[in-house]
Amino acid sequence: MFAYYVGIAVRNLRRSWGLTLLMVLAIGLGVAASVTTFAVFRAVSGDPVPDKSSQLFVPLFDMWGPRNGVARKDPPDALDYFDAMNLMRDHRASRQSAIYPIQPALAPADSNHHSKNIDGNAVYSEFFPMAEVPLRFGNGWSDNDDRQHATVAVISSALNDELFAGKNSVGRTINIAGKDFRVVGVLDNWNPQPRFYDVHNSGGFTTQKVDILVPFQTAITAGIKNTGNTNCNSAMNSAGFDGLIQSNCVWISYMVELRDASAVQAFRGYLDDYVNLQNRAGRFHWKSDTRLMGLREWLEFEEVAPSDTHLSLLVAIGLLAVCIINTTGLLLAKFMRRRGEVGIRRALGATKRSVYLQFVTEASLVGLSGGVFGLALTALGVAGVHALLPKDIASLAHLDAGLLGLCLLTAVVATTLAGLFPAARASAVQPALQLKMD
Question: What element of type H or E holds 169?
């Protein structure tokens, strides 16, 4: 019976092809706009570590105090060296790590090549399990390596391919910032977006790859400078990297892992106690704004997802709604023009239900056609996104099977729903009255 309905629907759609084309264009445009915008929204608001995000937190507090006698709206979004080291020393979380970006010089393997700078981070050993860093070869370094300021490193797969032809390089040596570092691990494919563990420096999204990770204190001892953002409340007492370490400038990202609600509560209490201790020591002379933000809250605080993506999604959904309303009107006009046909079919024995299902099938075919057209428009839309948006965000918006399925499903379901009322009105025609009128 379904094939019969489809056959009738195809003939009717061909008979009034102009109206059919108009509906297909409307549905295709509305669906493509909403799905393309959703692709961007999904890219910028996705969870970078869905298995761990509920356990990751960022501690903040105000180590600068009021500005011109007025309390700050928010505390700085990073820590200075003094406070970061105190938190690491107290170690009140299951796992934790101070983090700062580096760009050390990598010495060439032979004299025929020049040295080059590579991007990376200085972190602690607990960073690897906390951030679920995947490793192709080897492991991260140990807590003892952190304490001993060991010259060890974890390198990226790309750097491993370049230096060691993709072979297991664990135990090999590379020269970083003038010192020999022993490779203890090689990263698997890993480029989380947004760069959740160092939003202070990356802004969330970045095209930079992580080529090397080294122990935090090893980097400090070797004088490997911070290449990220540095914000200062006052002038440093001395210049250079040593002056930065001794200042109250904020430049260090900090993340902790807290596995349950009681651990979160305990760490909040610890932060309050720490700030009170600094106050009693005479370092703070103000009530510090202490915060412990969950990862999702932290990303919102840093405005990682551009606010205009939310607005664009709402506008696109509104456009889809307008297209559906217009399609409803067109279907109603199309179906009601065939009242005479409906009257004859009902007089010949067709039930109201069968006429209703036939009209709904026709609406669904319009939706399917609009969905196919919408797929082409969505592909063009995603290509346009890559041309218009910043590379670090645009690269995340891509077509996949799920997005294509969403496009077709949205078109069919939306048009079918739009056709329910017109189908009900048209199938409610009284055959005797309609034949008399005709």
Answer: none
Q: What is the DSSP letter of 231?
A: B
Spatial distance between the Cα atoms of 196 and 228, rounded to a whole number of angstroms: 15
Asked whether the bond before 59 is cis by omega within 30 degrees of 0, the reply is: no
Cβ proximity of 220 and 205 under 8 Å? no
Dist. CA 362–CA 367, nearest whole Å:
9
Q: How many degrees, rounded to 5, is the angle at CA 297 between CA 291 and CA 302? A: 90
Tokens of 182: 């022993």
Element (H, E) at 45: helix 17-45
SS3 114: coil
Q: Are 217 and 235 in contact (CB under 8 A)?
A: no
For the stretch 234-256, pLDDT in tens is: 888 888 888 999 998 999 999 99
Euclidean distance between the first and the last CA atom of the chain, given in angstroms as a whole number: 29
**Each residue's pLDDT tens digit, 382-395:** 877 776 666 656 66
Question: Is the Cβ–Cβ distance between 174 and 153 less than 8 Å?
Answer: yes
Q: Is residue 175 classed as helix, strand or coil in its secondary structure? A: strand
Do the beta carbons of residue 327 and residue 228 sit within 8 Å? Answer: no
Distance CA 87, CA 319 (A): 50
Q: How far apart are CA 159 and CA 156, in angstroms?
A: 5
Q: Which pLDDT score, from 0 to 100, does residue 435 have?
A: 45
Per mean pLDDT, which range of 3-12, 39-48, 68-77, 387-396 is the poorest?
387-396
The SS3 call for residue 375 is: helix
| Cβ 359 vs Cβ 335: under 8 Å | yes
Can you say how many angstroms the Cα of residue 197 is from the centroid of all Cα atoms in its chain?
Answer: 13
Residue 113 vs residues 110, 116, 431: alpha-carbon distances, Å? 6, 9, 89
Burial pattern 183-192, b for ≥16 Cβ within 10 A else e, equals: bbbbbeeeee
* Rounded (10°) CA dihedral 26, 30, 32, 35: -160
Distance from the Cα of residue 136 to its chain's centroid: 24
Structure tokens belonging to residue 222: 């070797």
> In angstroms, rounded to a whole number, what is the distance separating the alpha carbons of residues 145 and 151?
8
Helix 401-427 crosses helix 339-347 at what angle (to 10 degrees)?
70
In angstroms, the CA 5 to CA 13 distance is: 12
